[in-house]
Structure formats: structure tokens, C-alpha cells
Amino acid sequence: MTLLKGVYWDLDGTVANTELEAHLPAFNLAFKDFGLNWKWDTSTYIDLLKINGGKNRIFHFSKTIGEYISDELVIRIHEKKQFHYLETIKNNTVHLKTGVKRLIYELFEKKVRQFIVTSSSRKQVDLLIQYLFPDLNPFEFIISSDDVKYHKPNPLPYLKAMRLSGIDNNNSVVFEDSNPGIKSSLAAKIPTIYVPSNIPTVIDKQIKLDCILDSLGDFNKVANVIKGPKLSKNYVDYSFLNNFLMSICNAKY
């Protein structure tokens, strides 16, 4: 029995680790450009990741330290941050996570449709996808922060993606790495697999997940299933994802 028809990928931290590698240095360079005496260290940035969206993080931080800045300045800082982010990506500092390329191309060959659903801007996403997949773009479409009014943890990004794909949620799988992303996909009622990034994350207690992995695994790296179906190989593949959906289907009925 084949259930899997569509896979929705989060981007930052799921397809590639980008937060500390590209986003954080880009923010700090933008602050310097505007003469702000701000420098986010790793721990500060990880804490700010609880706030979804770059502009929201800038505004939240300014309030936290009592240095109020205008909405216009927030936008200008974020635009400069995007410039530095794109330049950082061009310098080959970001790489696909373990097993991602293998699984994406296996799904592509199996004719499983794949999509990106992210809180990043369209400009950032387009460049990163072009950089990570120079020979073949396996994704049918992208839902970016520019495409929806409300972002993760709101379910709207995934609801829009499902509407555009036309694939039933029972035939879909989401890969996510963060609490906002998991809340968004689960609120949209799509079976979700959590795979951590290199950012330490404690899953909120109210979140009920059916599948948790330590990685997707690869030919020379064994994946560990913390919760979910057993692996038939050392890594997550098409068969595992289909079995995951069948286990959910059986649990319902």
C-alpha cells in the first residue's frame, strides 16, 4: 500500500544548517553598517530564534535593551541583513545536512512531489536552493514569508502549501526542526517528523509528535529513531516514510 505522495520541507535547520552559519553573521554585519553597538553572540541568537521572523527579532531585541528604533529602520536593517546573508551563501559556508540530498533525490526518482515551506524571504530561499541544488531543483514550489500574511507557528503556510499541491494531508509528510515549525504543520494536521538542527531545541511539552529522529542518516552514518517506525536500513528512505504514514493510518482506524 502506497500512501506517500508529497513531502514538505522546512529549509533553515532542516535542509541545511544556516542560522549560525549565515543568518547570525549577516545580522551582526547589518548592525555594524548602521552604526549600532549591537553584537549578537550565539546564545543571544539562539534565544531570539524563539521569535519567528528576522524583522520581529530585531524589533524585539531593541525593546529588550531599551533602544527603541522605528519600523522603517527595522526594515532597512533587515534589508541590509538580507544582502549580507546572500553574500555569505555565495562564499560556500552552508551545506546540506546529513542524508538530505540522498533522500530528496530518492523521492524525486519515486515521483514523490516535494515542496519548501519556510519563514525565510523569497530572495533568500531562491539563492539558497540554487546554491544547494545547482543541477536540479527538486522542489515543485516554495512557500516563503513573502507568500503568506501569517507565518509559523500559524498553520497558514502549510495550509496554503496543501491547497496549492492538492495532496491530502494523509498522504503528506513534513520535516521540521523547530517548535514554531512543528506547531504550524501539526495545526495544519500534516504528519510531521522532527529532525534537530545544530541549534539546541527542547520540544514544547504540549507538542505530540509521532516521529522523532536524530538525523536522516546516510550510507556511512546510522540514523537513530527516538520515536516512530523501525528503520529497515541505516537511514530514512521512501519506505520508512510510507511506513510512517501507514502506522498513523492504522492508529486512526
- Fraction in helix: 40-55%
Describe the largest sheet: 7 strands, mixed
Helix count, per DSSP?
A: 9
Assess the beta-strand content as a share of residues. 5-15%
N- to C-terminal separation?
15 Å
Say how many strands there are.
7
* Parts with pLDDT < 50 across at least 5 consecutive residues: none
Mean pLDDT: 94
SSE diagram, text form:
Layout: E1 6-9, H1 19-33, H2 42-48, H3 54-64, H4 71-90, H5 100-109, E2 113-117, H6 122-132, E3 141-143, H7 156-165, E4 172-176, H8 179-187, E5 192-194, E6 211-213, E7 225-227, H9 238-252
Parallel strand pairs: 1-2, 1-4, 2-3, 4-5, 5-6
Antiparallel strand pairs: 6-7
Helix pairs in contact: 1-4, 3-4, 4-6
Briefly summarize what is shown.
By secondary structure, the protein is an alpha/beta fold. It has helices spanning 19-33, 42-48, 54-64, 71-90, 100-109, 122-132, 156-165, 179-187, 238-252, and strands at residues 6-9, 113-117, 141-143, 172-176, 192-194, 211-213, 225-227.
